[in-house]
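Changelog-adjacent note: as of this version, every example in the card shows the full chain rather than a window. The one below runs 428 residues end to end.
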Amino acid sequence: MARSGTDGAAQRASLGLVVMLTLAMALPMLVLYAIGALGPQLVSALGVDRTQLGALPASGFAVAAVLSLWSGRIVDRVGTRGGGVVLFAVVAVSFATMALAGGLGPLVVAVAVCGIAQALANPVTNRVVAERVPARARGTVVGIKQSGVQLAALAAGVGLPPVAAVWGWQAALGCVPPIALICLIAILRLPQAAPDAARGSAGGGGRLQPAAPGRALGALLALQLCLGAGLAAVTTFVPLYAHQALGASERHGALVLAGFGVSGMGSRVLWTWLAGRRDDPSGVQFLLALLAAIAAGALWLSDVVPVGGLALVWAGALGVGATAVAANAVSMLSVINDRRFGPVGHASALASSGFFAGFVISPPLAGWLADTAGFEGTWGLVIGAFLLATGCAAGLWRLGHPTVAARCRPGGCVRRGGVQPGRGAESE
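Full-length structure tokens:
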């Protein structure tokens, strides 16, 4: 009876905890969507071209990609509260610096600093879920907290342009630090979890050097890289494309990004809920990556058809939000539930490093293609990235899948065919 009561209390995760997890995902990624939503104003105010605009978010994700190699081990060692404090403090400092920046150089530095928070977001939040949420409820909680990334897109598309229109883009960015500081105070009140509450906690005091990924984690890392490359190009350039190439107003372009965010929020909750009920979610990732490539085809068509371009942009943005965004969330659920990937913090960080690497590579290349070959080349890049992601998901699917954490016991993991030695809770 006592255990039943404990499980029931655990499943009723506090609204405050879920909100904090969602904001921990939203605020570090807001910098990407803010640059996209404010892109037309930044191009005009700073006198930059599209290649330079693409390099702006790449600076943050370059830092995130490198630090992700160590951030998971660090979070495994210092715990979720310490990692969360650093995350929210960095967001506050970064956006305050951006709000005070008067040129491209200081803005690049501030965005790069925000990469520290991006590197911590998934390890911290995934570890909180592993520590405090029962296995049967994790799919829903992961879907909600991962939808925070798309909440950032919605907030950037709907909220920032009106503020910027009245008070300027710097004032719009200055709205973020107070929210980050409130979250910092909230996470300080979060009690420390039991030492062995999350997978791999016992080893948190070990080496900080990143371990080489195995075949499964390597395939997931490649999948994440391709998803990140496609998503980065879409979120950075869709508002600018709608404004410059199709004649939409700046407000209309930002609303397309907001629509992308709404689509992504719903899809992350739905698809992680569905994937959480499957032993092997890589089949879901394969389907979502393939559908994302088809959705990106609508963006490419919008640049070649004589009429209906804006309608195709909306269809493409909503479609990518409903598919590629969800595929990334399913990846995060996989590293929480699948013991092949190792300690949650470390596996989350390596998977994130692949995703961030895609964000480093794609925006400058997509901007260069837009400047030299037109946006048709940019959307072709997106289609190619999602097709490569489809291939990576197929490879991960073929590797097979040991059972999810809910079926693992000391001494082995129960599969449909019996017990798989060496995957038990004590094997890590």
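Structural remarks: The longest strand covers residues 412-415.
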